[in-house]
Structures are given as C-alpha cells and as structure tokens.
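<instruction>
Derive structure tokens from the sequence
<data>
Labelled lines for chain and fold
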Amino acid sequence: MPNKVLAIALTAALSPAAFAPATAARAASADDGRHLAITIYPSDLSLVEDRRMIDFPQGRATIGFPDVSADIRPETASLSADGVETVEQNFDFDLLTPAKLMEKALGTTVRIVRTNPGTGAAGEEPATVLSTQEGVVLKGGDHIEVLRDDGVPTRVIFDKVPDNLRARPTLSILTRSTRGGVRPATLRYMTTGLSWSADYVASYDQGAKTVALQGWVTLTNNTRVAYDKARVTVAGGAVAGDPALGGPAGPRGQGGAADRQTSFELPEPVDIADRQAKQIALLDVKGIPAEKIYRSVWGVRGGPGIISGTGQPSKAEVVLRFNARDAAGRAWRLPRGTLRAFLEDSKGEAQFVGEAHIGDIAAGGKVQATLSRAFDIDVTPRLVSDERVGDKGQRRTFEYKVANASDADVEVEVEQGGLGPDARVTDESITGVALDAYRRQWTVPVPAHGVTVLSAVIEQER
C-alpha cells in the first residue's frame, strides 16, 4: 500500500528548469562529434572509450556525463583533454523516483493540491513533510495528516529537484582548465553489464568435402544506457587483473595489448540499445576444404589414461576438421564460441551432427571440433605386455581393436598419449607419426562391417 500511496501523491508536473543542477555544471553533449570504442572482455568486464568535443570554461567547472553506464566502475574513470586536469569526480546513482523525491523533501515544505471530484475546483496548501516511513506524514497548518488513496485526486508540487538526485546515473567531474574553449576530450572507464558470445553454423558437404561456415557475434547490453555507432572489439583470452590499469590501449590492430589478448574488431560501427541482444554477422563463407574424421584418443589429460590390462571399448569421436581459410587462400580469425554442424543425408536434407566449443582461432588456423561419438565404430585398447629392459628400460606392446559396424569403409585416427620424450617405437603394424614428444598417432583403415587390429611396441625409460 505505501508504494501505491506515493504513486498517487507524487503525480507532479515539474518544469524543465527543475531538473537543472543547482551548481553551474555543464553537460557533455553526446551530439558533439562523439566517437565510441568498446572492448568487451570474457569476464563481464568492458572498456569504454568515449571521445567528444567539450566546451571547457577557463578555471574550475563541473562536467556532467549523464550517458555513462549505470554499472560503471567509478574508480577506473579518467578524463583527458589538452590543458585540463581533474580535481574531483563523483558518480551519482541516486535516481529520481517519486519515493526518492519525497524522501529528499523530509523536513521541507511542499505544496499539496487537491481537486474536488464533484466540482473540479482545485485547492492548494503548504505542508511540511514529517516522515516517509511506511507512508507519507505531513503537517499542514494546525493538523497532521497522512497521504492516502481515498479517491480524491491529489498532487504534490516540489520547487526543484534535489541536487543529488539524477534522472539517469551521472558521472560528474570537477575540472580545472588553463584556458576556455571547445576541444576534444576522452573519457575512459570500465563497466560490467556488457557481454559477447560467438556462434557458428557449419554445413558439411560429404561428397565435395567442403564446409559452408556462417558466424555470428551476439552482443548483450544490460548497462541501462545505449551505445550508438560504437566501434566494438570482442576480446578473448584471460584478463590478468584490471585492464584499465595496464590498459588494452594503443591503436587497434597495431600490436597493442588488446591484440595480444586475441581481439576481434567488428567490421562496422553498431548501435546497441539498452536491454538488447544484438547479432552481428561475422562471416559467411562457402567451399572451405574440410573433412569429417573419426578419432580415438588415449593417455591424455581427461582421457582414459595409459592402457593397463584389457581396456573397455570406447566409441570413436566424430570430428569436423578444417582450416579458417577458403580455397582461394583468404583467411579469417575466429573468436571462441560454439560451432554447430549439419550434414546432408542421402536425400539432401540437413541432419544435425552435434556441437562443440572452439577456442580462439588465428587467421587461417586449424579448426577441430569434436561433435559427437559414432555409435557404430568401437575402439578397444589392450596392453599386451609390459617388460623390463635392462636396469631402467621398459618395453610395452599396445594393441587397438577397431571395429566398424557401418556400411562404409572408414579411417580412424588412434592417438596414444602419456608417453615421454625418450619413447622409441621399435615396431608397429601401421606406420604412425609423432604429434609431439608425448603423443603418437596412427590412421587405421577399417572396411565396412570389418575389424582392424593395430599393434605397436614402444620402449622408454621407467
């Protein structure tokens, strides 16, 4: 009930002058050659760089920025302009509401206007606000009354808006300028409330062995302020501490810190309304050479580990692999995101294969997305023998039984990790390749409804 009473009691029409701050503050207009640049990091943290022309008077003046993010981190804000230094800055986030207006009027005199419902005649009387706790208590003349919803149209008139109440969150900066005049100024600050994500749709043509790739970046704005014509960069990688302190500054695309953190600048300025999720097309490329492969990985972190005894069968992974470049050699950088893959069936209809998270991909880099597991391809590992060789040596014989229950011949990449830099392959039924000092890979051909057994003998020190 108290909220309802206030809503009725405070239906007051204030003149535009009532909203002007009592001090001689100047508002930094967003129409004065404004240039916005935003870098959005993956940890709910963004850097806003706001450049505009400001008319600084000589000496001291307060410059108000009523269009900053409501989620600004005020301690990160800085204003720079030629011949201007910052003396003090305040972030006013006590917002103008009927309840707040009445609270700030506590102990002061307001005017109460009541309209007779029958005659339409309006009467006005002064009253002092005594309390706003669980309702509004007023002292008018020789009586005390409580504003209530009794069907009588009532308005409360205030002479002005209190200095510390704002229609919007406002950053006020007290400056000292060596000279008066208009000049470019840059406001830079960190904020929460902005986020980004990337999504990709990959349509794989199994016959042509190509993929058509579409990419979207989704920008989400919950800062309670709109950003118009902003140059937006989405940044991947981890942010060490507060970027505002070390600054992902420097010209974009010229080897600054933002580049080292894997940044991707959107191709055109964008308008991001408050409470909006906006999707921006990142790329739409067809005919990228690609392959769908089957893979079985053992002995790596998060995997089944080094084989001991008789292993259990495991379904082979289905992997889509391609480079971020087309047949003509044009390359793209892909920010981290979710890739969803579709495969055309024998009827030419798209079937969903699966989805996977991909990390930041450098221009032309390899994309390898593990989408699902093949229900008809099993890999069963086995440690055939584990022998001691000399004082410190160890010889192990591995065996991998690859079974294909599908109607097509397939190749399965079998990878064994957990080896060591001193590992030596002394025998193998299929020639493999060393991926690095700790991993070896074999490509195993398996006929339709058939089985292929891969064996390998590996020696190394214990």
